[in-house]
Amino acid sequence: MIEPHAPAPPGAPHPWREGGQSHARLPVRPGTGRFLVLVGVFVCAACGLVYELELVALASYLIGDSVTQTSVVLAVMVFAMGVGSLAAKRLRCRAAAGFGAVEAALALVGGSSAMALYAVFAWTGDWGGLWSGGPRCLLVGFSLAIGLLIGAEVPLLMELIQRIRRQDAGGAVADLFAADYVGALVGGLAFPFLLLPQLGQVTGALLTGAVNAVAGGALVLGLFRRDLSRRGRRLLLAANLVVLVLLGTAAALVDDFERAARQAVYGDHVRIALRSGVQEEVLTGGTRGHPLDLFVDGRLRVGGSDERLFHEALVHPAMSDGPHGRVLVLGGGDGLAAREVLRRPGVRRVDVVEPDPALVLLARRDRALSALNGHAFADPRVRVWTGDVLCRLRHLRGTYDVLISDLPDPGITASTKLYSQEFYGLARRVLAPAGRLVVHGGPVTSRPRVFWTVEATIRAAGLRTVPYRVTAGSADTVGGPSPRPAGLSLGPRDWGFVLAGRTRPALTLDPGVPYLPAMTRASLRADARAAARTRMPGLPPSTLVHPRYTR
């Protein structure tokens, strides 16, 4: 602890001691030692921010609703950092040993966090409600532990840098925070542009933990080794070696781990798993009698057993009540909505706008998926654009007879803008006078507020609406939640749709097109009446600046 001394003459350095020594015994000049400490601050800050971003990204991917996950992780971590700073006051008398121990623990906890969270998710299933379930508690636990350790860094580093050369507290804090913030900048940029695309979440976190352990151990054992006893140096060296061995072993086994975890999540028939710059796509089945399933960011987008019913219900009511020569499909990179559009005679042009080019490439090249979509993208009437859907819609010229919105679920934060009043205003602008818009609004029964908010938002954009739904046979269907463990029965569910136009369109089907037995005009209208009974009046529309969708 810092010992009190008599007041010093004006301008003289304040005498102080730590562990009985007035100054650290360094193997280098004080200026060089101070620079090395600031380099350590820089590296540790970069690693700390990577851990933070990795937790946010993984939680958003596995749980969804990135706003909620970001808020939970950041709130818990900031709170824990304050607690960690207070707790570190007790370690100031052994600042070098304390800092070394903190960095070794932080490297192990932060480096292994992604693997541990993904493992629990893969082998326990869905994460449940906001605070329910072991996996979500584990997320909060990692946020708390990492925040405590990060919070303990600055007081200990402040003590170490003051041991090298005494300066006023304001100047020392300014130097430390400057190095800390620059390190955070580098870590914040490295995560999305280098670690995530090149290494992935698990390997990126393991590598960050190794860098953290090397930086913390080298700073203490290299610069402040004389502040430790021989036994203390050996213990710290052994602890860092154990951490590096554990992280290195995990990195060597990461491919086997991801393969096993992927099978636990998606089943034993995973054929393709890739991560583009936009999302992750996993393709299962499609061979030897196994139905083809396409998962996008952990959610089932194409269910081989039910996808035909979903896409018939999405496309054909909008195509059956007027002209349909020019069709715009928003989303639909799997080609299945385009397949249904092309079944109708009189279609002259189909424009598909898909945010992820990797999904389009998969739909073109994978034999099972391209067979399922009827090789729709090989049809000369189909043109595919990739990029931001809202931006593309904003710059479209001309009008369309039918606009089909085959986009991710409105409860996912990343897609909220695609269910906003502004988005539907742009859609209305490109609709022909007799044009129709159809939107998948999520399940009606389990999430009525979200569905009716979609409907209210479309009405707010100046369109007349006809909501309807189609009941599916199982929960593991298009747009459904994250996959559950095999064998868990979740019962029936439904898909909700909103058909809209400048004038109120008719909910009908063309009798000249063969449909599945479940798709009839009578069943469609009966389901529309059932959906109407769940209406929640008075819901405000969702806008870009005030999104109103909740999970």
TrEMBL record:
<comment type="subunit">
    <text>Homodimer or homotetramer.</text>
</comment>
<feature type="transmembrane region" description="Helical">
    <location>
        <begin position="173"/>
        <end position="196"/>
    </location>
</feature>
<feature type="transmembrane region" description="Helical">
    <location>
        <begin position="235"/>
        <end position="254"/>
    </location>
</feature>
<dbReference type="InterPro" id="IPR030374">
    <property type="entry name" value="PABS"/>
</dbReference>
<dbReference type="InterPro" id="IPR030373">
    <property type="entry name" value="PABS_CS"/>
</dbReference>
<feature type="region of interest" description="Disordered">
    <location>
        <begin position="1"/>
        <end position="23"/>
    </location>
</feature>
<keyword id="KW-1003">Cell membrane</keyword>
<keyword id="KW-0745">Spermidine biosynthesis</keyword>
<dbReference type="InterPro" id="IPR029063">
    <property type="entry name" value="SAM-dependent_MTases_sf"/>
</dbReference>
<feature type="binding site">
    <location>
        <position position="334"/>
    </location>
    <ligand>
        <name>spermidine</name>
    </ligand>
</feature>
<dbReference type="InterPro" id="IPR001045">
    <property type="entry name" value="Spermi_synthase"/>
</dbReference>
<feature type="binding site">
    <location>
        <position position="279"/>
    </location>
    <ligand>
        <name>S-methyl-5'-thioadenosine</name>
    </ligand>
</feature>
<feature type="binding site">
    <location>
        <begin position="388"/>
        <end position="389"/>
    </location>
    <ligand>
        <name>S-methyl-5'-thioadenosine</name>
    </ligand>
</feature>
<feature type="binding site">
    <location>
        <position position="354"/>
    </location>
    <ligand>
        <name>S-methyl-5'-thioadenosine</name>
    </ligand>
</feature>
<feature type="transmembrane region" description="Helical">
    <location>
        <begin position="138"/>
        <end position="161"/>
    </location>
</feature>
<feature type="transmembrane region" description="Helical">
    <location>
        <begin position="202"/>
        <end position="223"/>
    </location>
</feature>
<feature type="transmembrane region" description="Helical">
    <location>
        <begin position="35"/>
        <end position="63"/>
    </location>
</feature>
<dbReference type="Pfam" id="PF01564">
    <property type="entry name" value="Spermine_synth"/>
</dbReference>
<feature type="transmembrane region" description="Helical">
    <location>
        <begin position="69"/>
        <end position="88"/>
    </location>
</feature>
<feature type="transmembrane region" description="Helical">
    <location>
        <begin position="95"/>
        <end position="118"/>
    </location>
</feature>
<protein>
    <recommendedName>
        <fullName>Polyamine aminopropyltransferase</fullName>
        <ecNumber>2.5.1.16</ecNumber>
    </recommendedName>
</protein>
<keyword id="KW-1133">Transmembrane helix</keyword>
<comment type="similarity">
    <text>Belongs to the spermidine/spermine synthase family.</text>
</comment>
<comment type="pathway">
    <text>Amine and polyamine biosynthesis; spermidine biosynthesis; spermidine from putrescine: step 1/1.</text>
</comment>
<feature type="compositionally biased region" description="Pro residues">
    <location>
        <begin position="1"/>
        <end position="13"/>
    </location>
</feature>
<keyword id="KW-0812">Transmembrane</keyword>
<comment type="function">
    <text>Catalyzes the irreversible transfer of a propylamine group from the amino donor S-adenosylmethioninamine (decarboxy-AdoMet) to putrescine (1,4-diaminobutane) to yield spermidine.</text>
</comment>
<dbReference type="InterPro" id="IPR036259">
    <property type="entry name" value="MFS_trans_sf"/>
</dbReference>
<keyword id="KW-0472">Membrane</keyword>
<keyword id="KW-0808">Transferase</keyword>
<feature type="binding site">
    <location>
        <position position="311"/>
    </location>
    <ligand>
        <name>spermidine</name>
    </ligand>
</feature>
<feature type="active site" description="Proton acceptor">
    <location>
        <position position="406"/>
    </location>
</feature>
<keyword id="KW-0620">Polyamine biosynthesis</keyword>
<feature type="domain" description="PABS">
    <location>
        <begin position="251"/>
        <end position="488"/>
    </location>
</feature>
